[in-house]
Design brief:
Layout lengths: L1 H15 L3 H14 L9 E10 L4 E7 L4 E6 L3 E5 L5 E5 L6 E7 L4 E6 L3 E6 L6 E8 L4 E5 L6 E6 L4 E5 L4 E7 L1 H4 L11 E7 L2 E9 L3 E6 L4 E7 L4 E6 L5 E6 L4 E5 L8 E3 L18 E7 L7 E6 L11 E6 L2 E6 L4 E8 L10 E8 L3 E5 L21 E8 L5 H9 L28 E7 L3 E6 L6 E7 L10 H7 L10 E7 L4 E6 L3 E8 L3 E3 L4 E4 L3 E2 L13 H4 L23 E2 L5 E2 L11 E3 L2 E10 L12 E5 L4 E5 L3 E6 L4 E7 H4 L6 E3 L26 H4 L17 E2 L10 H8 L8 E3 L7 E9 L9 E8 L3 E8 L5 H5 L3 E10 L4 E8 L9 E2 L11 H6 L2 E2 L16 E7 L2 E7 L3 E7 L6 E9 L2 E8 L4 E5 L5 E5 L7 H7 L1 E3 L3 E7 L2 E8 H10 L17 H6 ...
Parallel strand pairs: 37-42, 38-48, 47-49
Antiparallel strand pairs: 1-66, 2-3, 3-4, 4-5, 6-7, 7-8, 8-9, 9-67, 10-11, 11-12, 12-13, 14-15, 15-16, 16-17, 18-19, 19-20, 20-21, 22-23, 23-24, 24-25, 26-27, 27-28, 29-30, 30-31, 31-32, 33-34, 34-35, 35-42, 36-41, 39-40, 43-44, 44-45, 45-46, 50-51, 51-52, 52-53, 54-57, 55-56, 57-58, 58-59, ...
GO molecular function: GTPase activator activity; myosin II binding; syntaxin binding
Pfam families: LLGL, WD40
Membrane topology: Peripheral membrane protein
Amino acid sequence: MKKFNIRKVLDGLKEQASSSASSGQSGTQENNLMQETLQSENFQLCKTVRHGFPYQPSSMAHDPVQKILAIGTQSGALRLFGRPGVECYCQHESGAAVISLQFLINEGALVSALADDSVHLWNLRQKRPAILHSLKFNRERITFVHLPFQSKWLYIGTEKGNIHIVNVESFTLSGYVIMWNKAIELSSKAHPGPVVHISDNPMDEGKLIIGYESGIVVLWDLKSKKADYRYTYDEAIHSVAWHHEGKQFICSHSDGTLTIWNIKGQGKPFQTITPHGKQPKDGKKPEPCKPILKVEYKTTRLGDPFMILSGGLSYDTVGRRPCLTVMHGKSTAVLEMDYPIVDFLTLCETPYPNDFQEPYAVVVLLEKDLVVIDLAQNGYPIFENPYPLTIHESPVTCCEYYADCPVDLIPALYSVGSRQKRQGYSKKEWPISGGNWGLGTQSYPEIIITGHADGTVKFWDASAIMLQVLYKLKTAKVFEKSRNNKEEKQNTEIVDEDPFAIQIMAWCPESRMLCVAGVSANLIIYRFSKQEITTEVVQLLEVRLQYEVNDMESPPEGGGGGDRDLPTPGAASPSPQTTGPPTHPSTSSNSSDGVRDNVPCLKVRSTPLKQSPGYQVDLVVQLVWVSGEPPQQITSLALNSSYGLIVFGNSNGLAVVDYLQKTVLLNLGTVELYGSNDPYQRQPRSPRKTRQPSGGNGKDCYQVTDLPPSRYLGVFVKRDVLFFPAKMSRKLSLPTELKPDLDHRDNSFSRSRSSSVTSIDKEAREAITSFHFCETFARKGDSTITPCLYVGTSLGTVLAVALNLPPAGEQRLLQPVIVLPSGTLGRLKGSILRMAFLDNTGTFLPPAFELWYEPNAVGADSEERDKARKRRPVSVSPSTSQELQESQYAVVCSEKQAKVIALPSQNCIFKHSITETSFILRADVVQMNIGNCVACFCANGHIMTLSLLNAKVRLKVSRLKVIFLDTATRTFCFTNLGQAMYLTSPTEIQRITYSQETCENLQEMLGELFTPVETPEAPNRGFFKGLFGGGATSLDREELFGEMQAGKASRGLAQHIPGPQGLEGMKGAASGVVADLARARIALDERGQKLGELDERTAAMLASADSFGKHAHDMMLKCKDKKWYQF
């Protein structure tokens, strides 16, 4: 008896839950059909490259021999740039701001000083630079760092005014310390302030100039350990620069003046200059200006020297942009910049400070840009920047990432984008040209698309871990810019600023169709053309998409399931009478009580639009105000070029648009998708007395109230604007944000997902969150596949919509498209994020698409469109017995779960709870080289990949640290072949891979920063300077700063932190046999050259000795017969 009851209970459970035991058996059979090809060892997560402008830059350095540039940021990041395509990103673990950078010129090493008083030595001789040594100061704060050329002793200035010396080979402190109280005069009672400058005399390495913030400059003799000269000025010092002859130096001050000093004239400055100050006629001191933050003094062999400075503008220049001033001879050029100047460097022909500098360019680091100025051409033009540093030109609002694109796509975009390039750049090549490209074998095309706040869409070539802009599209040209501020505010009330910002993008790479959705509830559909056209009138559709749950009519009795009540494709659906299309540009109107109605947020331009080759507007769709309620922003979007359809949804419902016939096919709320099978008991909201629909008795209203919801869903409307009657108008919610907050998400996850009716509170909403076009089974138990649209909602429901398409060609443009909701596929916990379909062998079924053709070709007509080939997914004939074999599998992923559902039986084969403590931000079904998987990005930073066959986790890592979570959430993208990307900061794109194969090949794909280059020869001192002395004086720093002479430094002053390898290993760390051979060859050449120079010097000494002996012999012969008194 007991056994019988258990079996009876089990039988009942099988009937209610669609036979769980049968499902398990079916799942076993699916395993026999689909073979698992992806294993855990096929996945590995690593960051590949970072593109874009360094976020919040703070310092900069340049290696004039290697020709590479380093930029430090306030978050402790390092970005190194070589030739275009050679970039590298490094990060200090502490995250402290980088205050100074110093290259070991032509040594493949870099010294960085941070705001946390630590100094680090980086090895650049490997593709991924690493820290060799670190030194952490405990008692003093670092303010300035200086490393002389070809020296291993690093000078560190501190806030207390002291100078410490570090050996960069061992990264240990020397016992030699320059104390501030010994540097200044004994009679001075005030502290000189922090050290703001340190540099050695170009002609005498034993003389060190020290600049203090208070205005005191000291010339320090390293050997005698005392100050030779002191120079005092009554204004604070910001920077100091030497003349290459070492007899003069120049200081920049806080009052906007420059003072030039002779090293032996310590009383007054030799010359005082106020570059931007007004010179009074009575000889008085000029009016003070803004501080000159930095000055550089560069000489030329044949012309006047260059004085380059930042800042120093007059205080009366209010609102003027930041400027860089170039003073050359009698001319002064003021170059305005778009952003504040962080730092600048002058690029010179020689690395030696005691030679004529011959400057040829200036690198200017701005807060949001990098500018290189050509000093050799008149007018100082800028170089065209080849780096992808304009990602943030307007803030990025959304991204899309496509891998393995058609091979002809990138050349096509480049050909139209090359016409958009600006003119007036310098004709010279980009001066930062160091490093070598990688030798990777990854060759499939990759494209990144970024949408921006100003309505711009940019296409980027992302192939082979590089990034280059291809084409730029300005969507704001479609709309008129209102000159009346009040009118503009009225029309764009739903957004405070950036009314043209891009919110969502849908792109078909094969057909090159593009659809963008803006924050002002508008859609623009573009076609790609290589010919220029002029559009007289922009095609416009206005859609009313607003629903309010008032007194909701009950479905007819006996309605049964949604599948039975919904019309069939062959049934004739009554079509309401429609009015003609609206007069362009809008049918804006207000009701009698002044409530705004049928008003779009933006006004489409009414004048002819000239469209250059590239993406050209085909159709504009706008959501309008309804009875005083603004349209809700679009939350989901999908495009299918084979069907010629666009579908979009928001928190109120969805609309399907036929962009070939320029009509709205379907416009309804989410509630109507369920038909009479709505599983939720929705409570009506209280009616608004002041916002009653005004269309009930107006001309724009259709009297179709006799139709139940399940009947008018299939209505085909062949007009531009679709208005539903007031009685059918429903409204679920009015969200102010695109996505609900995290608490609201978590609360929604806790709702029951059972098949029983669930009550939804008044504030709950069911938004459309995902779409997927496919050719599959529209209903449970179907025997043939048909074009379908699957819809996912924020409550975790997946709904099917059948599409009845006319034949291709001319009939497609004349006959209507029938759209029929077909019931529910299933429910999951959390919002639906992604859907995909597989055949019975586990092969991914891509949506159908149309190949691109030239829409503006001469003589193009319906025959031209018929020639366009269409590639659709291969249809798998279903088995005669559905119990033995399924034909397709639907993969659905939500914020919490992933399911694999067999079709057409709609049995759940596998189900996996992805996360319980967090939620999924982005999920995609991606194709790898040997299989498919679900890739997920969680809000807690986890990245996971799941098998499609058993929902088993193949990869789970939590190492992805995201600082700007909102930015990463908005822009995170997975794509095929194990690639992904996101905006790691407002200005930078971080690309990652979760493919083991790509991780293994990454080392070869990365470029090399360090390349063996011979150091230029030192300047020739001349015969007489070499014979009688003069010229540059060298200093044996090893003897002076070494432990034998200077002793040991204080133990508690700084802590040494060794890196993973020493400096000895650094010089042999350059990767590749070619680099080793090149270094050996250069070493042999240098050795041979030095031996040759030694031979020449020996021969010269022999000749000089012979000459001296000859002169001595002649003198002896001349004087041997003379007496002593004859001399």
